[in-house]
Amino acid sequence: MTGGRRRSESSRLAILDAARDLLLERGYERLTIDAIAARAGVGKQTIYRWWGSKGAVVADAALEGGLAPPLVAPPDTGDIEADLRAWLRDWTSRLASGVGTSLILALTAATAEDHAVADVLYERFTAPHEQLLRDRLELARVAGQLGPQAPVPTIAGVLIGSLLYRVLSRQEPPTADDADLVVRVVLGGAGG
Amino acid sequence: MTGGRRRSESSRLAILDAARDLLLERGYERLTIDAIAARAGVGKQTIYRWWGSKGAVVADAALEGGLAPPLVAPPDTGDIEADLRAWLRDWTSRLASGVGTSLILALTAATAEDHAVADVLYERFTAPHEQLLRDRLELARVAGQLGPQAPVPTIAGVLIGSLLYRVLSRQEPPTADDADLVVRVVLGGAGG
């Protein structure tokens, strides 16, 4: 590794650390590229050379800096309703911390404003969580707890999308009751 | 109105027109504050004086510039399943145009990155659509097409959130089949 490359890697890490710390301290809304540059001791242009937007820096900071929630599979007690409730309630508690909601809003902004970042975030953050949920739903389908033709990918998307919409539209985390209602609608149906 | 106030209003309108036109021409991702300023013939600082972010300008441009989809109530044929399908399919066709997806991504970015913009967008854009959907669901509940205790606000959020998540995670509009599957899960339930 050349000295230049080493300096460059240390700047990159300083920027990611600064972005992570500032996100925790002040939240996404009040986070600026200027503040990240000042904290990291680099010029603003250095940040723009590597990242196209604030969201892109924050996405990398979350993925590399250990902010992103850990990958935890839904429980498998054999009761799909109880397990989905537990999984969704677990997410609502994670979101209920300031960091949780801030982080999801930050990752959503990054996704919505930059196509390339969206692909990376989907692949590295969203898809692994979604896959664990699909796996649990598929077990339930095979066990006869869902209809034999239940559209597992759609159900997973409905569960995740409901929580996400709740965070976006209210700018606050869903409650445990919200989580229970979503599971009730998705498993039991609203009809008849 | 003083000359200064008049100039100021004409700059504001020029900025909103420029933002709307550029969004149509190149999409949200390649839209910059610099380009809006150049097209509108104002300084960049004039834009930052009134709006805190690109998303905030685009939100106003959408709301005032007629880009936002018209408020159309779900049909009421007396068959809630057919009516929800028609309503969701209608949204998928709107989203299928480049502008539709671009616009929803832009409004989502604006919502996720700025708390104050989020409130305005929810009140002026999202809530009116959501209310029409809730009204239709409430009619169905009263008519016995949904369960007597069906949680109407949750159901509306589940339907909207599912489509939104689909757009965000795939960066492309849902299909008519996606819409039908979501309605099937939400009305019929995935269980048993």
Automatic annotation (TrEMBL), chains A, B:
Domain of life: Bacteria
PROSITE patterns: HTH_TETR_2 (PS50977)
InterPro entries: Homeodomain-like_sf (IPR009057), HTH-type_TetR-like_transc_reg (IPR050109), HTH_TetR (IPR001647), Tet_transcr_reg_TetR-rel_C_sf (IPR036271), TetR_C (IPR011075)
HTH tetR-type domain boundaries: 9-69
Pfam families linked to this entry: TetR_C_11, TetR_N
One of the record's GO molecular function terms: transcription cis-regulatory region binding
UniProt DNA-binding residue ranges: 32-51
Keywords: DNA-binding, Transcription, Transcription regulation
Listed name of the protein: Regulatory protein TetR
Organism: Pseudofrankia inefficax (strain DSM 45817 / CECT 9037 / DDB 130130 / EuI1c) (Frankia inefficax)
